[in-house]
Amino acid sequence: MSKRIIGGLGLLLGAGLYTGSVLAVGPGDPDRGQTAAATCTACHQADGSGKNVPGGESWPRLAGLDAGYIEKQLHDFQAGRRQNATMMPFANMLNDQQIVDVAAYYSQMEVTSAGGGESASDALLNRGEQIANRGDWDKYIVSCKSCHGPGGKGVGSDFPGIASQHAGYIRTQLHAWKDGERSNDPQDLMGAIAKRMSDDDIEAVAAWYASQTVSAEGEE
Ligand code: HEC
Ligand code: HEC
Residue 21: how many CA atoms within 13 Å on its side-chain side? Predict the structure, then answer.
């Protein structure tokens, strides 16, 4: 980059005109990400664990999620492809570089344990485990494991880890897909499955995944 261009950028930055679209986005930096995530901790917590507020809104765990997945979700909120009144203003605060940085920051954190599965009955957990690992062919429900991976730990940037995610959050997302309120998944993969699930199925699989722990060495 020539000195003149750098000087010009400096002027833009200095004048507060920088919008994030001028510069190519560089690799994610967890330290810058921590700074950009200062407002996020109110809900997603300093350790990225989020919070399962019983009977209330459930803030997802971000710690240990794949960076590419986090980036996609933030872009989806910004573009309105994914809608949530609580989250949208915070996604809109970030420029493209900050999105990459906060994704790097949260993705390198250790996976934390989840709430909402503690009081589930054995029968409910058994049903959840069945749907997660074997699916239910009578209802044409494919096992969650076939996309989200063994133990629900996630596969790459496309299939997020859902083990040790809060039950309230998993439940909300499945209902959102079932009701057509979330539709940012490629090829309606999740919508097709959620629409075949009863409320009890959703309750069961949410409780089971929330009760699963993810060991540190199981994550990258
Ligand atoms: C006031 C509470 C609140 C704050 C502050 C907040 N979020 Fe969120 N966030 C939520 C909620 C609620 C959801 C779930 C939205 C839904 O149900 O679709 C969410 C979802 C997300 C997701 C999607 C996670 C997934 O597994 O798909 C990401 C990524 C995220 N937030 C990042 C951030 C970042 C980065 C910040 C700070 C810049 C932030 N959030 C600030 C409440 C908040
Ligand atoms: C055919 C592949 C496929 C199967 C099977 C599947 N999923 Fe998904 N799931 C996806 C994809 C792709 C996404 C990411 C959507 C996006 O990009 O926003 C996703 C996202 C999710 C999320 C949102 C995670 C988050 O952090 O926001 C939850 C919860 C979820 N799936 C639960 C389930 C459960 C429970 C099952 C089994 C009943 C299941 N999925 C089966 C493909 C699948």
Answer: 1
| Tokens at 178, concatenated | 């079932």
Q: Is 93 annotated as a binding residue?
A: no
Q: Could you tell me the maximum CA-CA distance found in the chain, to the nearest angstrom?
A: 68
Kindly list the structural domains of the chain, giving each domain's residue range(s) and its CATH number in brackets, ordered by start: 25-107 (1.10.760.10), 122-218 (1.10.760.10)
CA nearest ligand 1 atom 29, residue: 70
Each residue's pLDDT, cut to its tens digit, for the chain (220 residues) gives: 444 544 444 444 444 444 445 568 999 999 999 999 999 999 999 999 999 988 888 999 999 999 999 999 999 999 999 999 999 999 999 999 999 999 999 999 999 999 999 999 999 999 999 999 999 999 999 999 999 999 999 999 999 999 999 999 999 999 999 999 999 999 999 999 999 999 999 999 999 999 999 876 544 4
Ligand 2 surroundings by CB, under 6 angstroms: 60, 72, 131, 141-142, 144, 146-148, 158-160, 162, 170, 173, 184-186, 189-190, 193, 205
- For the question of whether the overall pTM of this predicted structure is more than 0.85, the answer is yes
